[in-house]
Structures are given as structure tokens and as C-alpha cells.
Amino acid sequence: MTDPRNLAPSGPLLPDASSRPPDVAVMQLRLPTFVRKNPHVWFAQVEAVFDLHRVTSETTRFRPLLCNLPP
What we know:
By secondary structure, this protein is mainly alpha-helical.
């Protein structure tokens, strides 16, 4: 018989981002540090973070992205 302690969790591993207001959910995101040598990888990582947390609005994506870019 399978030990229930060895089973993978059946629920979501991350809190449901849709249960929070979008701006609050985005403010809690941690974006990776920008790497000047390979910006394409950084933008792909940021897109993955937004997708994972169900951030779909372009305006909501733009603000934290802009704040994490170097001057």
C-alpha cells in the first residue's frame, strides 16, 4: 500500500493569485535581477513569472518590469 506521506500534494503549490487584487499580487512578485549581457533570457524569465502568477494586463506587467530595469 502507498504511504500517503509520499504522495504529491493535490492542491496548488502557490497561493491563488486570482484571490488577491492584481496590483497587490504584482507588488509581491520577485523578478530576477536584470542581466545586461543577456536581456532576452531576463525577459523570458519575467514573462514566466507573470504567467505563473496569472498577471495578464499589459499595464500591470509594465510597472514592475520598468522598476527592475537599470537606469
